[in-house]
């Protein structure tokens, strides 16, 4: 199956095809945004490309612009609810992804507090930093 064909087993493809209900707030030819069914805060939105891909790295480059434009438009609209918000993407099960159709979360924040805060964050280790730069600097596919 081509990566961008609708998947019958994908909830978000079902929403794109109007097989499943959703509270849609934005739609264009290539992207859709709707309310999260289990919102972390009031107004929690999801922005998706209509074509099915599970991760950002699978998105065809021609959709980078349209997708980011849709996210940006929804950011402006979310500011009608709250001036501050998180723009987040979970990529893979260990990162908390439960729906494997690419989506950006827009989560309005009504209170102070860092949702990514953990009890303790150790300072970056210099040796590990050198190793990480070696791993991460070369372009993908080399
Ligand atoms: P993930 O954890 O994959 O990054 O986020 C998936 C999001 O989709 C979750 O925040 C979850 O609440 C939301 N979600 C799951 N099922 C449905 C659904 O059927 N409809 C809508 N609108 N959101 C859903
Ligand atoms: Zn899908």
Q: Outline, from the CA principal axes?
A: globular
Distance N terminus to C terminus?
Answer: 27 Å
H/E topology pattern: HEEEHEEH
- What structural class do you assign from the helix and strand content? alpha+beta
- At CATH level 2, the architecture is 2-Layer Sandwich
CATH topology: HIT family, subunit A
Low-confidence stretches: none
- Average pLDDT level: 93
Largest sheet: 5 strands, antiparallel
Based on CA atoms alone, the radius of gyration comes out at: 17 Å
Number of helices: 3
Number of domains: 1
Structural summary, described in words:
It is a single chain. By secondary structure, the protein is of the alpha+beta class. The chain has one domain (11-136): HIT family, subunit A, CATH 3.30.428. It is built from three helices and five strands. It has helices at residues 11-16, 64-78, 126-136, and strands at 24-27, 31-35, 45-49, 84-88, 104-109. Strands 1-2-3-5-4 form a five-stranded antiparallel beta sheet, covered by helices on one side. β1 and β2 form a beta hairpin. The longest helix is centred in the middle third of the chain and has 15 residues, at 64-78. The radius of gyration is 17 Å and the shape is globular. The two termini are 27 Å apart. The mean pLDDT is 93. Guanosine-5'-monophosphate is lined by residues 11, 22, 34-38, 46, 90, 96-99. Residues 11, 22, 34-38, 46, 90, 96-99 line the site of guanosine-5'-monophosphate (5GP).
């Amino acid at each position: 199956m081509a990566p961008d064909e609708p998947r019958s087993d994908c909830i978000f493809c079902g929403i794109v095809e109007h097989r499943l209900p959703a509270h849609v707030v934005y739609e264009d030819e290539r992207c859709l945004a709707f309310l999260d069914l289990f919102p972390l805060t009031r107004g929690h939105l999801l922005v998706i490309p209509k074509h099915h891909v599970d991760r950002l790295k699978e998105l065809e480059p021609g959709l980078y612009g349209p997708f980011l434009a849709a996210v940006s438009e929804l950011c402006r609209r979310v500011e009608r609810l709250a001036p501050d918000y998180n723009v987040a993407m979970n990529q893979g099960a260990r990162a908390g992804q439960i729906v494997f159709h690419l989506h950006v979360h827009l989560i309005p924040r009504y209170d102070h507090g860092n949702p990514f805060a953990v009890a303790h964050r150790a300072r970056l280790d210099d040796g590990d930093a050198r190793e990480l730069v070696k791993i991460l600097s070369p372009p993908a596919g080399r």
